[in-house]
Amino acid sequence: MTVNALKAVALRGVTGLLLVWVSNIPLVAAAEVTELCDLTFTGNIKLLNVPVARTWPQQSKGLSYLDDVGPGMLFAYESAGTLSFWMRNTWVPLSIAYISEDGRVFKMEDMEPDSADYHLSEQPAKYALEVMQGQLERKGIAVGSRLENIECRARSQRE
Question: Which InterPro entries match (predicted)?
Answer without folding.
Answer: DUF192, Saro_0823-like_sf
